[in-house]
């Protein structure tokens, strides 16, 4: 998304970004209910993947990916937001990192166990976001976040959404590998998504 400028606040500078009338995907899905067809939801996944690939190629982690961090433009395009930069005036671009969040439900298992966030942990969260988009529910909706963390570190994966195509589901499962080194890169994911005949 374009950066319009920067505003100086009382504590730290703020980025000036476009206003998205449709809001983020969670509110958008709640507002329109089942009116969003499967093809629209499938379209959002490679759009999000492309945005995340761009960040990763610039050496930037997102770090807190979920539905609330994805906005829907007037044209219906999904765009990433909330990559908080701290303190960017003192760091090189390669050192920009997102602000740490406490969304245990979306955190990769190695991060839950104390490891630092990596590009691979973003990949794990991306796949959970894919489930959210298809179900309009958080991952493991019947479980408390802390219980989800324990389940995920044991390799438990979300149930497959009925409407999710086979190839997309298989790709999501690769992203949940307990070994971060075995997860695909976001650039590979973008390529694989564009090869899916259902997209």
Automatic annotation (TrEMBL):
Organism expressing this protein natively: Cerrena zonata
The organism's lineage is: Eukaryota, Fungi, Dikarya, Basidiomycota, Agaricomycotina
**Boundaries of each Protein kinase domain copy?**
1-197
The record's InterPro entries line, in alphabetical order, gives:
Kinase-like_dom_sf (IPR011009), Prot_kinase_dom (IPR000719), Ser-Thr/Tyr_kinase_cat_dom (IPR001245), Ser/Thr_Kinases-Pseudokinases (IPR051681)
Residue runs in coiled coils: none
Q: Which domain of life is it from?
A: Eukaryota
| GO terms for MF | ATP binding; protein serine/threonine kinase activity
Q: Which PANTHER family match?
A: PROTEIN KINASE DOMAIN-CONTAINING PROTEIN, SERINE/THREONINE-PROTEIN KINASE TNNI3K-RELATED
Listed name of the protein: Protein kinase domain-containing protein
């Amino acid at each position: 998304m374009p950066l319009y400028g920067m505003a100086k606040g009382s504590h730290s500078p703020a980025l000036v970004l476009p206003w998205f009338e449709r809001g983020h995907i969670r509110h958008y899905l709640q507002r329109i209910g089942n009116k969003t067809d499967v093809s629209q939801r499938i379209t959002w996944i490679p759009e999000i993947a492309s945005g995340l690939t761009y960040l990763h190629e610039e050496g930037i982690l997102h770090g807190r990916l979920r539905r609330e961090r994805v906005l829907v433009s007037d044209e219906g395009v999904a765009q990433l937001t909330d990559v908080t930069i701290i303190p960017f005036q003192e760091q090189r671009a390669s050192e920009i990192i997102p602000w740490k969040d406490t969304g245990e439900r979306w955190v990769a298992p190695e991060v839950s166990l104390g490891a630092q966030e990596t590009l691979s942990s973003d990949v794990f969260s991306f796949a959970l976001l894919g489930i959210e988009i298809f179900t309009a529910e958080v991952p493991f909706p019947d479980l408390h976040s802390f219980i989800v963390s324990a389940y995920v570190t044991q390799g438990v994966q979300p149930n497959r959404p009925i409407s999710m195509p086979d190839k997309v589901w298989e790709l999501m499962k690769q992203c949940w590998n307990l070994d971060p080194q075995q997860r695909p890169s976001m650039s590979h994911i973008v390529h694989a998504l564009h090869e899916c005949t259902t997209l």
